[in-house]
Amino acid sequence: MAKITLSKLRHSYYPDPKTPEDYALKMIDLDWNDGGAYALLGPSGCGKSTLLNIISGLLVPSEGRILFDERDVTELAPTERNIAQVFQFPVIYDTMSVRNNLAFPLRNRGVDEATVARRVAEIAEMLEVTDILDRKAAALSPDNKQKVSMGRGLVRDDVNVVMFDEPLTVIDPHLKWKLRSKLKELHQRVRATMIYVTHDQTEALTFADQVVVMQDGEIVQIGTPVDLFERPAHTFVGHFIGSPGMNILPCETQNGAAMFRGQQIALEGDIVPGEGKRTEIGVRPEFVTLAESGVEAVVRKVSDVGRHIVVETVIGEDRVAAIVKENAPAMGETVHLNFRPDRTRLYRDGWLATTAGEAAQ
């Protein structure tokens, strides 16, 4: 396995890029440690697949370097990087048995048959496909086909990194949770460096120890699932992660305080000095409560989602969601909202602009 370093990486599909908008990847500096479980998370078109293709060697970046354990592999072909990839659609040989599919990457590299048999047995046991080893791959269900595809990536013990590109896209929703759990278990057992590319926050947050959130070719935050939920560094992260996403409310700043519709809103800490075109308050629905007093709002919609109730309100033209456990108000009712101070933050031009600490008084 390898530590992967991306240094001053930029990429454009244009031959002569002029402006930042011409770059699919604008500037990437990133380290992934040996043996870690990582996710690239973002919407379609954010650059995550471009970045994956650069790491794998399918694309040469316009600028910057890719290092595996400090070795520059920027110009190396995919076959020279010792990378295993698992794609959206299972890459297996339908006419072969499951056993021979798993053995193929090893036999293709001249590994002796005793080692092949041992590794195939180990991977089959991990993936829970031992009982179908002698079945033709063509007869498998989609989830078992993807398990075999994963096994082909994991069977070699000389790979630097295993990369998963939206591997659960074609899997039925009721089976996805099983494969997500299996992937997490596999990483804990084999401790390979794994990179998982997805637009699905649930897949990223359940698989990865560290998540890289991308937007418009840039990294907006790197952190643990807890970091991304509890303290989004950018309003995009707040919107993209969480269901429903973070409430974002326009505000003004006066004498070091945040003012929303004439009311001062207590924040987690001090406002960081700086200039910007736009200031906003960010607070997740989990930290908005209904109270006897506070910011007045009108209930627009009430949704019982099982574990809790989502109350959607409006304050003028601004929408604010709150999560409650019981006693939800009726539609059209006037309520008062309180924002938990230590989870309420100021954002300037999208970026976090409050210090962590005691809530401002």
From TrEMBL:
Residues 4-241 form the ABC transporter domain. It comes from Aliiruegeria lutimaris. GO terms for molecular function: ABC-type ferric iron transporter activity; ATP binding; ATP hydrolysis activity. The keyword Cell cycle does not apply. This is Carbohydrate ABC transporter ATP-binding protein, CUT1 family. GO terms for cellular component: ATP-binding cassette (ABC) transporter complex, substrate-binding subunit-containing. CDD domains: ABC_Carb_Solutes_like. InterPro entries: AAA+_ATPase, ABC_transporter-like_ATP-bd, ABC_transpr_FbpC, ABC_transpr_MalK/UgpC-like, Mo/tungstate-bd_C_term_dom, NA-bd_OB-fold, P-loop_NTPase, Transp-assoc_OB_typ2. Keywords: ATP-binding, Cell membrane, Membrane, Nucleotide-binding, Transport.
